[in-house]
Specification:
Layout: E1 4-12, E2 18-25, H1 30-43, E3 56-62, H2 66-75, E4 78-83
Length: 86
């Protein structure tokens, strides 16, 4: 059983759009979670979105479902979209 860590994350685009999502990874490392958040935002064309330490914080740990586990195994992290995400 692999326990993963969830970072509750908010980003804001230059157009003032707010995105709410979770970054899920195997390390409880806020800096890494922020790097992954920025990587994901860039991958969806929102490289200008801002993520700050105050808006990317450890939320809880859990054993993730198989689809998220596969993403983490493949790329080191998974994104669970919540509000405002494409």
């Amino acid at each position: 059983m692999t326990v993963s860590h969830v970072f509750d994350t908010y980003a804001k685009t230059v157009k003032n759009q707010k995105l709410h999502f979770n970054v899920v990874l195997d390390e409880q490392d806020q800096q890494q979670a922020m790097r992954y958040a920025k990587h994901w935002l860039a991958s969806i064309g929102l490289e200008d979105a801002v993520v700050t330490p105050e808006n990317c914080y450890f939320y809880h740990s859990l054993e993730v479902p198989a689809d998220l586990r596969a993403e983490i195994d493949r790329q080191g992290y998974a994104i669970y979209k919540l509000e405002g995400c494409p």
